Amino acid sequence: MIGYLAPNYPLIAAFRAQPKARTRPADRVARRIFKTAPKISDYLHDGDFLSSKGDLDRPISGLALDSRRVLPGNLFFALPGGRADGHFFVDEAIQRGAVAIVGEKIPPGMAARVTYIQVADARRALALVAQRYFSFPDRSLDLVGVTGTTGKTTVASLIKHLLATPAQRVGLIGTINYDLGARIVPSYRTTPESLELFGMLAQMRDAGCRQAALEVSSHGLDQHCVLGLQFGVAVFTNLTRDPHRTIEASLEVQSRLFTGGSGPAPRAAVINLDDPYGRRLATAMPKRIKVVTFGESPAATVRAENVGLNLKGAALRLVWPDGSIEIESPLIGRYHVSNLLAAFAGCYALGRDPSVIAARLKSFGGVPGRLERIEEAQSGHVFVDYAQTADALRHTLGMLRAITPGRLLVVFGCGGDRDRAQRPLMTGAVQEFADFAWATADNPRSEALSRIFHDMQAGVQHANKISFIEDRRRAISLALATAREGDCLLIAGKGHETCQEFADTIVPFDDRQVVRELVGCKSIKSA
Questions:
Q1: Where do you find CATH 3.40.1390.10 in the chain?
Q2: Alpha carbon distance 495, 492 (integer Å)
Q3: 6, 259, 277, 351: which is deepest, by most CB within 10 A?
Q4: 130 — pLDDT class (breaks 50, 70, 90)
Q5: Which tens digits make up the pLDDT trace of 275-308?
Q6: CATH number, domain 9-132
Q7: 3-state DSSP: the chain helix, strand, coil percent, rounded to 5?
Q8: How confident is the model at residue 434, as a pLDDT?
Q9: Fold annotation for 372-526
Q10: Are the CB atoms for 278 and 272 separated by under 8 Å?
Q11: In 10 A of CB 92, how many CB atoms?
Q12: Which residue ranges does the chain devote to CATH 3.90.190.20?
């Protein structure tokens, strides 16, 4: 949370333990600060909690959900978790200065100086309190939430691009970064916890933003991260296999964004009519919600016609109820055509002028690490992509196979400490489309690379078409040396990432920069 939310330091200082020889002026200053401080009762009302012990009218200096970042005077939320239960850190939070605790159970040994509040669901309570604490920032913004298995990052970035003008900045919460209006900070999670999310929306509001695009992950919906948010438009891109839940469970989670299961229902729903689960979602929408569909289906509200694809980009005729336009985009592949339609439909559903936003589609160059073209005068076409699952690889490689005149070459790996069942499936997906592949390290983390390779080798179907190389830089170098004119090389798995994670260290590693360095070295040697 540090670096994302700015705490009220004078108020925090007033809560700090004072020396015994405290002066009267300090007493007067502290009393004046406490008089204007927010109180617990301002944010937790009758009916929001099951029981409480202690004073609910006591002032607080802010909210915290990580005991390591508790500041004097904070209200600490003890959240349940898969790896660690926040209730285990209540004592640490109190030692750091927390004056009140919100949790799903009240500990047996209670400090007399601390207020305890028991709630049925701590994450729901956090979202409710955070929204009130930051004065409902979502009500001052036109929010577009983008959910689905793939395409969220590109669609959200596209929507930001289409809505922004020189006089009006548009906020963004997503996988790559958070644009808060006055500053852009690195992303640490696709959909942040509700406390950080509402705090960042408040920063957007205060910086003059009037619209914002948010990536909304299934995990974020499941963990109530966007609970209570008032979305103007919700966008559904597609639905494919999730390693953590069944396809039906995934559809149920994502549908909450559209039907009011995570808060107020959006004013409009934008849904992919080319996706079978999108068609199901569209038919289940409440009648009070405006539905705008998109796709290549003739029945779609916003659709693409006469689509032409090649390694330079896509050309299509964009059609909406009152007009149409011919556009060319540097984005490559049929799934990017779907992303273009989704973003256009989202802005159209907000009521923006379709002819203006359609013209802006042409100037969107893409998202870092999402099928990003690397132009360094190398042989063949080189792309870096974030694909990290078998479905994502199959999707990307199938598209590249259809438009590549020469050979399709792939460098890929599987992350450590992640779903092991994906590894043979990823290898199988690569071998289904690639003429040759180099399997290598992705982010091994704490897992032995030999074990990762063992899992990946279970998916090998053509042993003569794949080579296992431990060093990722070496694998990329071999692939570049193999590529010829007309070939296409995909370097998959890390995308926009600039580091490689090992068990006890993180080292700088950017696939894009590595390609540029290797091509540069080759040029020097051949000169």
A1: 9-132
A2: 7
A3: 277
A4: very high
A5: 999 999 999 999 999 999 999 999 999 999 999 9
A6: 3.40.1390.10
A7: 35, 25, 40
A8: 97
A9: Protein-Tyrosine Phosphatase; Chain A (3.90.190)
A10: yes
A11: 13
A12: 372-526
